[in-house]
Amino acid sequence: MTTNAYPLLQKVNAPADLRAMPRGNLKALASELRNYVIDSVSQTGGHLSSNLGTVELTVALHAVFDTPYDRIVWDVGHQTYPHKILTGRRERMSTLRQLDGISGFPLRTESEYDAFGAGHSSTSISAALGMALAAKQKGENRRAIAVIGDGAMTAGMAFEALNNGGVADANLLVILNDNDMSISPPVGALNRYLAQLMSGQFYAKARDMGKSVLKQVPPLLELAKRLEQQAKGMVVPATMFEQFGFNYIGPIDGHDLDSLIPTLENIKGLKGPQFLHVVTKKGQGYKLAEADPVAYHGPGKFDPAVGLVKPAAPAKQTFTQVFGQWLCDMAAQDQRLVGITPAMREGSGMVEFHKRFPGRYHDVGIAEQHAVTFAGGMACEGLKPVVAIYSTFLQRAYDQLIHDVALQNLPVVFALDRAGLVGADGATHAGAYDIAFVRCIPNMSMACPADERETRQLLSTAYAQNHPVCVRYPRGAGVGMTPLESLDGLPFGKGEIRRSSATKKIAILAFGSLLYPALAAGEALDATVVNMRWAKPLDEELLRQVAAEHDAIVTVEEGCVMGGAGSAVGEALAAAGITKPLLHLGLPDQFIEHGDPAKLLALQGLDAAGMEASIRARFMAP
């Protein structure tokens, strides 16, 4: 991208440069910043709609606050591309979400301006409150700002933090970035004036003086509070947040710098917890994204002049599509089935199910804990809940998984999408731990299908059980194994030998989609290859048979080695009194960052060549 197209933006290498600019230049800077985001994402892919919606807010925050001394905590973090561009990473945007490039989310190790790492939602208020109280304890006059979306406000953690923050006597500013509603008539000149007035020192001092006088006459103080709330209620939404102890300001137009900057400047001088409600529009400034913000939420590369081009039908189904089709087919057969998702309808492949079975579809918002317990309640009443959830997000509901579902042995199916490495979204979204954290829970089972066909079959098997079962599958397409049309399952807890060795020296036990590179490695090594299918229960009969016939055993999984399926194999062999040389291949004890999934797997030695090399080095070294 030529710098001639961005004459103002190229002068901003840090927020201090922005603060040194004449205020009259900031609107033009925001326009350049928006176009730069569009140009960048069109070349790399990434999140677009959410970033276009936060351009002016980002400019205003860095113009008013003394970052990085003042802390800005972005919730979720996929809306931080403008923030990254303004904080010294403009030239690195071409590496966004690529191996050794910059992250698509805030990352503390990447920049001092990334005050808190993110990736999951609803954490910003808690983190910013912690920073605000730490500053107070250390005697530092810094501000802590949490920027949170209306979707993230559906999670209980956000309200837990508000409940604490309202009584914590901290200089905390919570900004609600409300992008799920149009800018209504009250969000105009009159409302702008009132927002600035309510955020100003005069209003704050007058209110405090009035309270000190009226405290001497409690009935009048209570009447004054009610009158104030009613007056505000004429021009602003119900001040629920004031009941938490916050001074509520807004809503104001989040794309109007003439409104944002003065309001933020006024708030900067206020003490105690403040709540600013800004209304923004996803995709703002790019008509195609405004018209279809969902399609432009996380696009791949595209031509900004043309927009997204509908791709040709892929040769292979994705695992997500296989799940979506199975869900519809099973629902048509069994009226008890209900589908539940924590705000991941598109990502989890439930769009068609929602259309066909709207009364049996439940999107509970970004509330994973609630989703799991909600499913448990439905199971208690004889329904058959299927919870479609990313592996990484199930971590957030671990207590509910144990106490509300497994402890009561309720028949809930968990369809764990994005199991294993996920590529561009990096460590925050990787499904590395589900085998380890599920298999240690009594009553729980874990299926690991190797391909698209087995995914459909094992979902049916899971659904037929009378206890909780997880079925994990990766992001993207598999090997092109077309699923059968039937809803027949596979035997519960049973694996199969997929390749027999003539030499019987080495047996490779594969869990999940890494079966296919394991088969390739098995060919090169003349090793037996076993498709285990289940991490829990293990097919112990098959395991003992294989152990008796081979000299060494190798386990392969796209999950953490520590406590994973390989550990289960070792434990089972030890319990049976069988001693064999073991090699566990899987994800190491570290967080794997963003990059091309195939390359990331190869770097961990989990492609065919890497498996072969590891096995040769361990068992066939000269």
UniProtKB/TrEMBL annotation:
Homodimer. It comes from Comamonas terrigena. This is 1-deoxy-D-xylulose-5-phosphate synthase. SUPFAM superfamilies: Thiamin diphosphate-binding fold (THDP-binding) (SSF52518), TK C-terminal domain-like (SSF52922). It is an enzyme of class 2 (transferase). One of its GO terms (cellular component) is cytosol. Belongs to the transketolase family. DXPS subfamily. Catalyzes the acyloin condensation reaction between C atoms 2 and 3 of pyruvate and glyceraldehyde 3-phosphate to yield 1-deoxy-D-xylulose-5-phosphate (DXP).
